[in-house]
Amino acid sequence: MSVLIEVAAGNLESVIAAAEGGADRIELCSALSAGGLTPSPGFALEARAITRLPIFAMIRPREGDFFYTESEFQSMMHDIRILKETGVDGFVFGALTESGRVDEENCKALLTLCNPLPVTFHRAFDRAADPMQSLEAIIALGFSRLLTSGQADSAWQGRSLIRELVLAAGDRIAILAGAGVSADHARQLVEESGVKEIHLSAKRSRVRRLPAAHALTEDRPDGVSDPSFIRLLKQALG
Predict the structure, then answer these.
(1) How far apart are the C-alpha atoms of 51 and 227, rounded to whole Å?
(2) Which of 4, 7, 44, 192 can pair with 197 through a Cys bridge, CB separation 3.0 to 4.6 Å?
(3) What is the pTM of this model?
(4) Residue 109: which domain range?
């Protein structure tokens, strides 16, 4: 079973882990706990130096909804221009209107800046009002792939809609299943939905123990991708 594995990496340690674990592509972002935000140029440059795996940079100026102001779109355009110079291989973004439709006008402007690099429409799709109408809009705009959990809390729970999307999309766009994917159900998810690409962070929890001099500061939870999780997923899909 040939399935592409994309790992969302929110720090350089996760970039290294993704490569060691056998990932096929990296989604580079900051603040994974907030759903993923735009990575810094320095982060992108160092990630590029670490691995030759394809790196897709997230373009998302803030957490929360996906209805952006004109100023936020200008910020996204600046980020694309800058990150394009770091050697990334593609981008990931999405935008909706207040009524829950794909923001076609602004997405088109962003796509033009990304050209000729491929672009993934991210899980803003999972908040869209009409999934099939949104799929057609995303295809018409020229996105290369769509990342979705099937408008559910996890891709496993949303596998029925993901299957509908795969069938409707045909070979016009790749459907990338993501959210809560694990080795326990990955093979069945792929078989039932028909996707050929899987997205996950493969994170394990970590707490950095601060020095005694900082005893008044709470230990801060952290997360880093675990290469063993990725290997287990690859074995399950094998």
Answers:
(1) 15
(2) 4
(3) 0.91
(4) 4-208+217-237
